[in-house]
Structures are given as C-alpha cells and as structure tokens.
Design goal:
Pathway: Carbohydrate degradation; 2-deoxy-D-ribose 1-phosphate degradation; D-glyceraldehyde 3-phosphate and acetaldehyde from 2-deoxy-alpha-D-ribose 1-phosphate: step 2/2
Distance between the termini: 23 Å
InterPro entries: Aldolase_TIM, DeoC, DeoC/FbaB/LacD_aldolase
Pfam families: DeoC
Bound molecules: glyceraldehyde-3-phosphate
Order of helices and strands: HHHEHHEHEHEHHEHEHEHEH
GO cellular component, one term: cytoplasm
Largest sheet: 8 strands, parallel
Radius of gyration: 19 Å
Strand content: 5-15%
Structural class: alpha/beta
Catalytic activity: 2-deoxy-D-ribose 5-phosphate = D-glyceraldehyde 3-phosphate + acetaldehyde
CATH class: Alpha Beta
CATH architecture: Alpha-Beta Barrel
CATH superfamily: Aldolase class I
Strand order of the largest sheet: 7-6-5-4-3-2-1-8
Length: about 325
C-alpha cells in the first residue's frame, strides 16, 4: 500500500460496547442525502478528466472468477501497470499512471507477482471468501499463506452471523485475530453489507472492525445480491469520520461490487470528498474494487480527448 511516512496505521482501540449499542441510523436521511448526491453534478465538466484519472489511481483492479488463469491475471496486471493507452496519457499530460492495486484469489498471487514484481500492491481475498464460513484456524492460516506468498493487502470477509445475532464481541475478536495474522500487510474488512439487513448493522459492524484495527472497511465481495450502494457508503464513511475524530486514526474506504461506470466512480469520489475531505481521495485511504470500471473510464477519457467513443471491445479488459 502506498503510504506517506507520516501515516499512522489504525490500531485496535478496544471494543467499546456501550458506544456500539447506542448507534442509530436514520435510513430516510441517508437515502435523501444519497439521492441529492446522485442528482447533483458536483464535478464540473472541465475537472471530470482529472477526477477520472484519480479514480483510476484508486482502483483495485480485480478478477475473482472460478475460471481465473495465470494468463488472465498476468494480463490484468499489465493493464494495472498501464491502465490507459499512451496517446490518451500524452493528451491528458499524465505519466506513470497505475491502478491502486490488483485484487485476486490466493492461487493467483504468484502470477501477479511475476508481472508486478513489487511495482504495485497485490491484494488477496481471504478467510474463505466470499462466505467466510470455514474454521477460524483455516482462515488464519489462509491469511498467513497469502502474506508469505507476497500479498501486501488482505481483504478478509467478516462472519455475517456475528452481526445478524448482535455478537459484537465475537466480531471484534475475529477481526483482531485477522489483523494480527496479517502482520505488516494491510487488512480490509469486507462487511458484505448486502447481507446485513439494516443500515444500523452496517454502522455497528464498521465501528467494531475499526475498533479491532482494520485498515480499511469495504462494502462487498461482489458476490452478494446487493453490493456497493451510495446510502451504505454514506453510513460507512460517516463512521470513518467519527472514528477519526475520536481516535485520530484514518481508516480507508473501499466500495466494491457493481461499480462499473465512470459516472458511478465520480459519485463515490464525491461522497469521499464531501464527507471526508481531499485527504481521503488518495489510494492509501480510498479504493474502488472493480473488474470492469476501467473499461468505461477509458472510453470516457477517449471521448474527452478525441470527441469520439470507440467500440468498448477496443478497451476490453483481460
Ligand atoms: O472487490 C471487487 C469485486 O469483487 C468486483 O466486483 P465487480 O466484478 O462487480 O466489479
């Protein structure tokens, strides 16, 4: 993960059950705010290209298919290292542009490493992704193996039943154990918000994972029925803001799953800017987990530069 040297990694602050239990979320207010953000053009047209370049820098370029092959992952990594055509980069005046990281299954760390060779972080999904329902021992070992194989970021999935039964102590202990198993690798806690039923559960799970030292909180695996949404994002980034006010630790945010258009990427950037400020618009604090978003951003940037859209297959990702 890219860090500035002054960056202070989140540490387990301890579980404050009294705080967690009093959390309330006003769903109507979250929905209203989400609708106003979605309908507003907060990014002026002339700044859009710069914002889309920023979005690219924050993508965790992802492939999480059962049919992934080393060849597909190698092509994905080459795309992550050079996400835009040279003529578009030249026209936009950008150099050395890359995505934030790549995100793969454990077995694909080695092919990713072969191409990236330390030039970009490799995030591995872990802990029996996507359901998270193997033994704790197996899940901890999985983290250790992925770190040993070269992953510098670990995307864990929480055990949803801990949230659904209100067992915050179990969730805290699990997250703490995952954080410890990661060592120096940064850990993103996937809440699988589409499975959590209420926004209040989303807020509480966000807090518990942050209190247990998670470096990022992430919405979804991409495999739930409902993945990243703006109302859920508002709840999560407000939890991040308040946690920062209380502890001084900056926790990152990663919407993931179904974010496939440049327009939606701009909406997430707007949420980050408006709720957390410009500091959170950098890859060490913001990532978008996405498999096909880059294709649409490249199309939009081509249109910005040339005035034309080309067929989307010209930008097809691996
Ligand atoms: O974490 C990333 C997601 O699994 C990617 O989801 P997506 O294929 O809907 O972009």
């Amino acid at each position: 993960m890219t860090h500035n040297s002054a960056f202070k990694r989140n540490e387990a602050a301890g579980l404050d059950l009294g705080w967690v239990n009093q959390i309330k979320v006003n769903r109507n207010a979250a929905d209203r705010r989400a609708a106003s953000l979605a309908n507003r053009r907060t990014v002026k047209k002339e700044y859009q290209a710069a914002w889309l370049v920023k979005a690219i820098q924050c993508i965790d370029l992802t492939t999480l298919g059962g049919d992934d092959t080393p060849g597909r992952v190698e092509r994905l990594c080459m795309k992550a290292l050079r996400p835009l055509r040279t003529d578009l980069m030249d026209a936009l005046g950008v150099q050395g542009l890359t995505t934030g990281a790549v995100c793969v299954y454990h077995e694909m760390i080695a092919p990713a490493l072969k191409v990236l060779n330390g030039r970009l972080p490799i995030a591995a999904v872990s802990t029996a992704f996507p359901a998270g329902l193997s033994s704790l021992e197996t899940k901890l070992r999985e983290i250790e193996l992925s770190v040993a194989a070269g992953a510098t970021e670990i995307d864990i999935v929480i055990t949803r039943q801990h949230v659904l039964t209100g067992n915050w102590t179990a969730l805290y202990d699990e997250m703490l154990a995952y954080r410890k198993a990661c060592g120096d690798a940064h850990v993103k806690a996937i809440l699988a918000t589409g499975d959590l039923v209420t926004l209040e559960n989303v807020a509480k799970a966000s807090w518990v994972c942050m209190m247990a030292g998670s470096d990022f909180i992430k919405t979804s695996t991409g495999k739930e029925g409902v993945n990243a949404t703006i109302p859920v994002s508002l709840v999560m980034v407000r939890a991040i803001r308040e946690y920062y006010e209380q502890t001084g630790f900056q926790v990152g945010y990663k919407p993931a799953g179904g974010v496939s258009t440049a327009k939606s990427a701009l909406q997430y950037l707007t949420v980050m800017k408006e709720e957390l400020g410009n500091e959170w618009l950098e890859p060490h604090l913001f990532r978008i987990g996405a498999s096909s978003l880059l294709t649409d951003i490249e199309r939009q940037l081509e249109h910005y530069v040339t005035g034309n859209y080309s067929a989307s297959h010209r930008h097809a990702q691996p």
